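Narrative summary of target 7.
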Amino acid sequence: MALTTELATKVEKLLVAASGGSLVRSMEQVYGLLAEHGLLYQQKVVSSFIGVHPSNRDGCGVSAKHVHELLADLVHLGWSPAEFRGLCVEVSEKERSRVFAWNQELAHNSEGQVPPWTSELQLKFATLAGSHTNQVLRCFLAKTPSQCAQVAENGRLSLSSLQTADPDFHRACVEGATWRIVSHQVPERFPNFCQLAQAAANATGHVARQESELQLCRKIHQEVALQMSRGKTNVNYVDIKDAVLRTKPRSASTVPALFVFTLRYSGGQTAHLLQETEKFVRAHGFQSRMLGSDIFEALNTEMKSRDPGALIRHMMLHFAYGAEDARALTVSDVKKLLSVGIASKRDEATRVFEDCKALCSTHAVNVAVSLKALGYLQMNLIAVLLDKKKYKKHENIQKAAQQCVEEINQAAQLRIPNPFASQHKDASRLKSAGYEVGMHVLRKTDSSTGKIKGMTASEVTLDVEGHDVKVSAESFLKGEWRQVNFKGESVAVEFVGSLPVNSVDFQIAQCKARILDRMTAQEATGAAHYGNLELYLKPSKNVQATKRFEKGELVLIPSTHKIDLKRPGSASSGAVVAGLVDIEGETYEIALSSCLQPLQASKPVLHPFWCMRTSTVSAECNLELFPRNHTSKKFKMDSDAVWNIPMAKSTKVINEGGMLKDGSKWLVKTKEVDNMLFAQIDKWDPKFVPFVTGKAVQLRKEKDRFLVTTTWPSASNTAGA
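Modeled conformation, tokenized:
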């Protein structure tokens, strides 16, 4: 049906209202109007015809890592057609080439984690909501590599395995999911429709992935550009605040610092630096990682030089979002990298990076190859500048650049002259790789052995059964040779003090065995009530009583085979801390975790304790963990005294049909640094606020703000502690 003038006027007013603040309500009204006039319809579509809209997540698109994380979650939790709320638009003929090219780049940058497109004509629709879920369905159809063993065969996703594990999920893959589809007339008439639609989906789609910090930077840049297009010369934070925060992002407190960073260091009107960082993190980093306001405020520190240092700051972001350790980059690291003391090394690093980037441009290196190689080069350069042994892979900046060019040549099958290799005129590279004269080595391919007699930049001289043999140094640097230790004379060693029974791992396993044995004995207490309980998994986990239970009558044991011994304060929020145990002078928390396996599994594992709902508001709960001191109770390895697993007991009368709800305690996260114990407190923690105030966290505008004040004891009060 055509988009009439009357309908267009109504939609225009609602879109203006959505831009002004009432985002979700206004967009739902738009969808209702479009559906009434046949411009929005529901249809079951196979995922192979659906791509990602370039406006998705403010232009960030989907993250390959998030796609496979979501895949694992869906396999574990099960597919529910009712929970899927996909929204897409028809791709018009004039837009198809642009959308196709954008999706192909997304696939190529993922290095096979997201399947590419075989034909431009295949792309019929583009997603605004449900994008990661659609990519999961496409991955199954394309049999992409996966580590999800439950639904994979020979390291690749398998539809037959999925059909066995979850028939509904399999049906969604082969037959398609049900989508809400918007006619291509709508985005053609209203250019801001797609951006508002995806923003509304981000605000309401709690199952979807949260907005990342880089996505917020992109949104800030777009809003600033919009303000300037309207004639505003100086854009302040208050001008864009409401538009950026209307989706209630998780990192809302960081947005002021993100605003300053985006204005100063995104790369001008094109934001080319921000785009390059986004692409690398999306393909190879941890996009959902939150660095926080402290890091970005440190990144906003101005340097005492003519160069504002935008590039070095984005190198830091590559390192922070790309390293395995979420705390790889600290505020102290940022201050060091921006200090005057390492200005010369910092300038060398940026110059070397620009040289490598120019090589990629000159030799027309594939975009995905250069994105990966240059991205990891930036990470390696920061590691060299910080001189952190945990992350440092190269002795100096030149060697990091040399490896970058070598990786580009190998991945792109090119022979680009390596300008950084010529700087090595001696055996320094071999020595830095761990080789030295007098070392016995073995070639991996044929087990040939020899002793190193001499080394130069280009070759290694080996003594092989009395004869000198020359081998290229490159073969050593590529790892084709390894050190081997020849057997000498037999030497007796002391073993009595190193028996398995004396090892920490043995004692931890012994502790777990004793806990499992005690858990088995106590399980009978809870089993007596199982006949009077009903357990539900969908639409959400829940346990209900089928008879009346008096106060203290119902008892449930946290039965599980997942038992971990962790450092105090490091147990996950969903675990039950059953006590403490001392092993070899170290104290460990005994953490019991859920072991549930869904009905779709070959052997499902279910237990009412792990299906109960939890709450931090005691008035809402009818069960509580006893004894109340279970988190600090000591389990003694050298004692035969009976030690009981904590159990959930009814603290109120539970009537027939009543829902079981357990009290969830807030456990503070701690970390010991230089013999000082620090506590991590987050004012947005959904458990911490109720623990302190007795009220749930309120983030809506119309609600009163809550104030939390923490008072710490003075040094004089703690001196004798």
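The first strand starts at residue 40 and ends at 45.
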